[in-house]
Design brief:
CATH class of the largest domain: Alpha Beta
GO molecular function: ATP binding; glutamate-tRNA ligase activity
Number of helices: 9
Protein name: tRNA glutamyl-Q(34) synthetase GluQRS
Keywords: Aminoacyl-tRNA synthetase, ATP-binding, Ligase, Metal-binding, Nucleotide-binding, Protein biosynthesis, Zinc
CATH superfamily of the largest domain: HUPs
Radius of gyration: 20 Å
Largest sheet: 3 strands, parallel
CATH architecture of the largest domain: 3-Layer(aba) Sandwich
Bound molecules: glutamic acid
Pfam families: tRNA-synt_1c
Family: Belongs to the class-I aminoacyl-tRNA synthetase family.
Helix content: 25-40%
Oligomer: single chain
Number of domains: 2
Length: 290
């Protein structure tokens, strides 16, 4: 990518924690950060912090400040410069341009309501975009495009068979086609999570992506984008998610306290980090496997 200055160079293992500052961090984030941090430290590697603030309408500076305070409270130090995705939009735009030139993306004019309506027919698996705008001549109304979508069938044919490595699942055959023509950029958000994360992990020299298993499926798309953009493929460590006493996944919407709440209530963050490492936190924590 010619943009390694913001990473830390060639130092063996490099992991990262990449929160989106759209809300407060909770225990699940702490667990992921601890695992990513420890994975690097145990191998003499580097742990990076990247703020995924591409969604300008939902990202808030006060959440960034809390993220920094939360990590310090947990006793997790990161290496190198703090990277903000909002300062890297030109890189994502360049990559999108290259994909456009190869005919691998197309503009989409559908509103969310139109897509929802088209999907109202019963379907077996997760809803995927039904391809309404694929192959339609966009020229007369180009300025009305809401989004740019990957032409998945073309992209998969272009890239050929792909594999990636997951610590728990082993060698995984990439199946990005299950997710259909994913959005790579929107009018109001110049890069999707998929595009930005793929570019940044490569640009920062990340060798090991440690993150929750809720992002396992997304990795199929990231693997494809790596192939299309000529980027290296890191190793993946998708860890189990923390669950509450009810066995349900901990999430903000389930009312689990934020790290900020715990910090301000006087909880010892380093002790909490150790409890998460040892599986002795007062929530259902799976044994450390990443
Ligand atoms: N920014 C994403 C999130 O906060 C995580 C990205 C990743 O680890 O790949 O959910």
């Amino acid at each position: 990518m010619g943009d390694r200055a913001q990473g830390v160079g060639e130092v063996g293992v490099v992991t990262r924690f990449a929160p989106s500052p759209t809300g407060r961090l909770h225990l699940g984030h702490a667990y992921s950060a601890v695992l990513a941090h420890d994975h690097a430290r145990a191998r003499g590697g580097h742990f990076l912090l990247r703020i995924e603030d591409i969604d300008g309408t939902r990202s808030r500076p006060e959440h960034v400040a809390d993220i920094l305070d939360d990590l310090a409270w947990l006793g997790l130090e990161w290496d190198g410069a703090l990277v903000f995705q909002s300062q890297r939009l030109h890189l994502y735009a360049d990559a999108l341009e290259r994909l456009k030139e190869r005919g691998l993306v197309y503009p989409c004019f559908c509103t969310r309501a139109e897509i929802a309506e088209a999907l109202s027919a019963p379907h077996g698996s997760a809803p995927v975009y039904p391809g309404i705008c694929r192959g339609v001549d966009p020229e007369p109304r180009m300025h009305l495009a809401h989004a740019w979508r990957l032409d998945m069938a073309r992209a998969v044919a272009d890239a050929g068979p792909l594999d990636w490595w997951d610590e728990r699942a082993g060698l995984v055959r990439a199946r990005p086609q299950d997710q259909g023509d994913v959005v790579l950029a929107r009018k109001d958000a110049p890069a999707s999570y998929h595009l930005a994360v793929t570019i940044d992990d490569a640009a920062q020299g990340v060798t090991d992506v440690v993150r929750g298993e809720d992002l396992f499926e997304a990795t199929h798309v990231h693997r494809l984008l790596q192939a299309l953009l000529g980027l290296p493929t890191p190793r993946y460590h998708h860890h189990s998610l923390l669950t509450g006493a009810d066995g349900k996944r901990l999430a903000k919407r389930h009312g689990s306290p934020s790290l900020r709440d715990m910090r301000l209530a006087g909880v010892n963050g380093r002790d909490l980090a150790n409890d998460l490492r040892n599986g002795t936190a007062t929530v259902g924590v799976p044994p450390v496997s990443a």
